[in-house]
TrEMBL record:
Organism listed in the record: Hibiscus syriacus (Rose of Sharon)
Annotated ranges, domain Glutaredoxin: 65-106
Lineage summary: Eukaryota, Viridiplantae, Streptophyta, Embryophyta, Tracheophyta
Coiled-coil intervals: none
SUPFAM superfamilies membership: Thioredoxin-like (SSF52833)
Membrane spanning stretches: none
Name the UniProt record assigns to this protein: Detected protein of confused Function
Length: 184
């Protein structure tokens, strides 16, 4: 496959994987008592080429195969995810997908693929709680977002006191909130 060329270059850095200094989430985002996988990605429909889409899909599949509770952060659903990723990785141009495990930065599709192949991913995720096979969130259907109840997704609220329409601060730029049932 075409992506094999890149993988070889990256896998040599894997041996130092556990010892390198990790980028951590801000404490508000990351709770070390709650083993969690954060998966930043971009909806495949909005990705322009099949190559990157299938690569991203492969790494999602290899992580999803463990049936963990994954905090999926689709940057096409919420621009704040992109900003968060830019600030955590301290780069302006971010590539996707990017995976964090227990708040530690792991890497992108190539790293995840290599870790999966050598069994490292299975080892790290061994003590993580598992979901029931075939479980789908009843509330959001695994979309991870729900329409904002505060403004009904319109992003606008009429302020009775001030007498004008203002921006709803509960939701994101798409009038969505994180699904309260599967994203906390
Ligand atoms: Zn949900
Ligand atoms: Zn709202």
């Amino acid at each position: 496959m075409a992506e094999m060329r890149k993988n070889n270059a990256k896998s040599s850095s894997l041996s130092g994987f556990l010892n390198r200094s990790f980028t951590m989430f801000a404490p508000s985002t990351f709770d070390s008592n709650h083993p969690k996988v954060h998966f930043f990605h971009k909806n495949q429909q909005s990705q322009n080429r099949a190559a990157s889409a299938s690569k991203s899909h492969d790494s999602i599949d290899s992580v999803k195969g463990f049936r963990l509770w994954i905090d999926e952060r689709d940057i096409s659903m919420d621009a704040a995810y992109k900003k968060e990723l830019q600030s955590v990785l301290k780069v302006r141009k971010v590539t996707l997908p990017q995976v964090f495990i227990k708040g530690k930065y792991i890497g992108g599709a190539d790293v995840i693929k290599s870790m999966f192949e050598i069994g490292e991913l299975a080892r790290i995720l061994d003590d993580f709680p598992r979901r029931q096979p075939g479980f789908v969130c009843n509330s959001c259907g695994d979309v991870r977002f729900a329409p904002c109840g505060n403004c009904n997704g319109s992003r606008k609220l009429f302020d009775d006191d001030e007498g004008f329409v203002k921006r709803c601060f509960e939701c994101n730029e798409n009038g969505l909130i994180r699904c309260p049932y599967c994203c906390d």
